[in-house]
Design goal:
Blueprint lengths: L3 E4 H10 L3 H12 L5 H12 L8 E4 L5 H13 L7 E5 L2 H15 L7 H15 L2 H7 L3 E5 L4 H12 L3
Parallel strand pairs: 1-2, 3-4
Helix pairs in contact: 1-2, 3-4, 5-6
This protein binds adenosine monophosphate (AMP).
The site of adenosine monophosphate has 16 residues, from helix 1 and helix 2.
């Protein structure tokens, strides 16, 4: 699809590995499984987006995660004469996610992947701060829930079936 993939989690982890001031600031939140404050996250996202002035589009992965972030994204895109085409949510039962993330933790080196307690704390953050965005995008007819249980091929097909209608 020639889209640029921006994962805010990956960008934060890159800053952490380079020991930049942003990485040092974000580290304590990320290791606890809390969201990094909106102002920091939004500034970082804008900075990333502005590095690609001539692209066809973006896949934002793990962003927006709060109402303020969604509003900031709408405003940023509006300034560029663009809009969000779709919000795609991969839906997976929590017990399966715990197993997947613990497995990932064996090789990811991520502090936040290492215990069921930390993983469940992150689900709590999702429930209280992010889930509300389903409404935000449903009101705009942009929300698409996708069953995230299955093989990589099956899930890829479910995703492309949606993207191809946009
Ligand atoms: P992820 O790689 O998407 O699982 O994100 C890992 C961690 O990075 C999250 O638990 C947050 O601490 C932080 N993070 C990533 N994206 C965001 C965001 N959009 N807003 C706030 N914090 C974020």
């Amino acid at each position: 699809y020639q889209l640029i993939h921006i994962s805010t989690g990956d960008v934060f982890r890159h800053h952490m590995s380079q020991h930049t001031p942003l990485g040092q600031m974000a580290k304590s939140y990320i290791e606890k499984g809390e969201l990094v404050p909106d102002s920091v996250t939004i500034d970082m996202l804008k900075n990333e987006v502005n590095q690609y002035p001539d692209v066809k589009g973006f896949i934002f992965d793990g962003f927006p995660r709060t109402t303020s972030q969604a509003e900031a994204l709408d405003q940023l895109l509006e300034e560029k004469g663009e809009t969000i085409s779709a919000m795609i949510a991969l839906e997976v039962p929590e017990d399966i996610l715990v197993k997947r993330i613990l497995k990932r933790g064996e090789t990811s080196g991520r502090a936040d992947d290492q215990s069921e307690e930390k993983i469940r704390f992150r689900f709590g953050q999702y429930q209280t701060k992010t889930l509300i965005l389903k409404d935000h995008f449903q009101k705009q007819n942009k929300f698409h829930g996708v069953d995230g249980v299955g093989s990589i091929d099956e899930i890829t097909q479910r995703l492309t079936a949606i993207i191809d209608t946009l």
